UniProtKB/TrEMBL annotation:
Flavoprotein found in the keyword field: no
Coiled coil (UniProt feature): 235-262
Any one of the GO BP annotations: double-strand break repair
Key words of the record: Coiled coil
Alphabetical list of PANTHER family matching this protein: ABC TRANSPORTER ABCH.3
InterPro entries: P-loop_NTPase, Rad50/SbcC_AAA
GO MF annotation: an example: ATP hydrolysis activity
Organism (species): marine metagenome
Name of this chain's protein: Rad50/SbcC-type AAA domain-containing protein
Keyword Lipid biosynthesis attributed: no
Domain Rad50/SbcC-type AAA positions: 6-262
Length: 333
């Protein structure tokens, strides 16, 4: 069983100078318990950064700036060159003692900011490098193959950050854990080893004057594979958003149809009420017109106290006489 045996810290936060912290005990689980402010979270941060560098920091502080964090993490009591050393010793029953170390040189913005040195030693010997391969790139790939970051996140737990666990990703974390238990995680690591062997074989078969070109092509291939995976994940996320948007559109359409249906019945009732009121208004206008043409003139003119002044009877007799004359003339025609 692989186990962490010792953590070395130099000039990191409260640890001024160099400190060795023994991690290995008699049990299968190591628990660091202490009062607040003693350095439990600092120790956990040191383990994450020692193993994975900036990637380990980003998993702990997604919104943080790694270089600014390192500048602030340098011990105020540190002496000599401004640098931070984080190293982790691992006991492996097959390979022996493995030491993973990272040194960060804090030179200031005017001299390039922060420089990182990462190294892996197995039984005191550094990893053998292939032609054209950088020490940093080799170490990063070896660490990821040996201790995958996704797996270690489940074994390194800070009790003060339990609330930071994302429930939306817990299913993926469980799946990865099951993969590691049943051996699928090993298949992924073997795939990385096969890719490394493939690169070495291609370099060995390539003429010396074309090694750089082949290396660049292989790097581009890996880059495009990563971009393809990222694009695929982004596409899946966009498809989920599209499905949610389509569902929302259907809901809105149903709401509009319901509102239109309710509004249609209300509009029909309004039209019927309008027709009734219009008919009543027409009838009222007719009555008003009749009053204006018949009764109102007499009311406006006023009635005399003696109706004989208007000679109504003579007017009526004359009117009747005129009608009889008209009838007789019409008869003679």
């Amino acid at each position: 069983m692989v186990s962490f045996s010792r953590l070395t810290i130099r000039n990191f936060k409260r640890f001024a100078g160099e400190h060795d912290i023994r991690l290995k005990g008699d049990g299968r689980v190591t628990i660091i318990a202490a009062q607040n402010g003693v350095g439990k979270t600092t120790t956990m941060d040191a383990i994450h950064v020692a193993l994975y560098g900036k990637r380990g920091f980003s998993s702990l502080y997604p919104e943080g700036d790694f270089h600014k964090w390192l500048e602030a993490a340098y011990s105020v009591e540190g002496k000599g060159d401004r640098h931070i050393l984080l190293a982790l010793d691992i006991d492996d029953p097959i390979q022996g003692t493995i030491r993973i170390s990272r040194t960060y040189w804090l030179m200031g913005e005017e001299y390039g900011g922060v420089e990182e040195e990462v190294g892996v030693e197995i039984s005191g010997k550094p990893l053998p490098r292939e032609p054209g391969e950088s020490r940093t790139g080799l170490a990063e790939r070896w660490i990821e193959d040996y201790l995958p970051h996704a797996a270690m996140r489940r074994f390194l737990v800070d009790g003060e950050r339990l609330n930071d666990l994302d429930p939306k990703r817990i299913d993926d974390e469980i799946v990865r854990g099951i993969d590691d238990v049943i051996g699928i995680g090993l298949l992924h690591r073997l795939k990385h080893h096969l890719n490394s062997t493939k690169r070495s074989t291609l370099r060995a078969l390539t003429p010396e004057d074309q090694i750089d070109s082949v290396s660049k092509l292989l790097d581009l291939l890996e880059k495009y594979k990563e971009e393809k995976g990222a694009s695929k994940s982004q596409l899946e996320a966009c498809q989920s958003v599209l499905e949610a948007s389509n569902s929302r559109i259907v809901e809105i359409q149903e709401e509009i149809e319901n509102l239109t249906r309710e509004g249609g019945s209300k509009n029909a009732k309004l039209r019927l009420d309008y027709a009734i009121r219009q008919s009543e208004l027409t009838s009222s206008r007719r009555d008003v017109h009749q009053h204006l043409m018949e009764s109102l003139p007499f009311v406006v003119a006023g009635l005399p106290s003696d109706l004989s002044e208007w000679q109504i009877e003579e007017v009526i007799a004359e009117k009747r006489s005129s009608e009889r004359i008209e009838e007789q003339v019409e008869f003679l025609r």
